[in-house]
Design brief:
0% strand, 162 residues, mainly alpha, 7 helices, globular
Length: 162
């Protein structure tokens, strides 16, 4: 039986936010079957931006509502204009009959997600001295994604905290 990769370290409160560190966390979360299942459901049924969910779980301290609005708006714009279009194209390609085309679209979709991850880490500003290192993730996710049932958020967080 293979074991899941070790969970990446979360950033310290005042270290610069690193796209590579966030990406490692996002890939790790995606490797957790229960978390991936919830994220795909949210993406497909609620048009939730998966990277924004993961960024909200990864960001080490609290940010004010204006910062989250900016992050959600910019991330959502990129997701709607670029990533979702590439994903829709990839899903139209029959993987078995045109493997190269499918893989090329998948790579392009992941590159678009990587651009969004870089934008999120660059845009999130370090918090001031009063920042708390461990935000209440349940509360953060409920505020950012009010369409999601609380029970689903709780099960998702249990999956990524294990």
């Amino acid at each position: 039986m293979s074991r899941s990769p070790k969970r990446p370290e979360l950033p310290a409160r005042r270290e610069p936010l690193s796209t590579d560190a966030f990406w490692a966390f996002a890939v790790w979360c995606w490797s957790q079957p229960e978390a991936r299942s919830r994220l795909l459901h949210w993406q497909d049924h609620h048009q939730i931006d998966v990277l924004l969910v993961l960024f909200a779980c990864w960001l080490p301290d609290r940010r004010g509502s204006p910062v989250w609005r900016k992050l959600a708006q910019g991330s959502g714009d990129w997701n709607r204009r670029v990533t979702r279009r590439i994903r829709a194209l990839r899903r139209r390609i029959p993987e078995r009959s045109w493997t190269e085309g499918y893989r090329a679209c998948l790579a392009l979709e992941q590159a678009a997600e990587r651009v969004e991850a870089a934008w999120l880490t660059r845009t999130a500003r370090p918090s001031g001295p009063g920042a708390q290192a461990h935000p209440e993730l349940n509360r953060r996710l409920r505020r950012l994604f009010p369409v999601l049932p609380e029970s689903e958020i709780d099960r998702f967080l249990a999956a990524v905290r294990s």
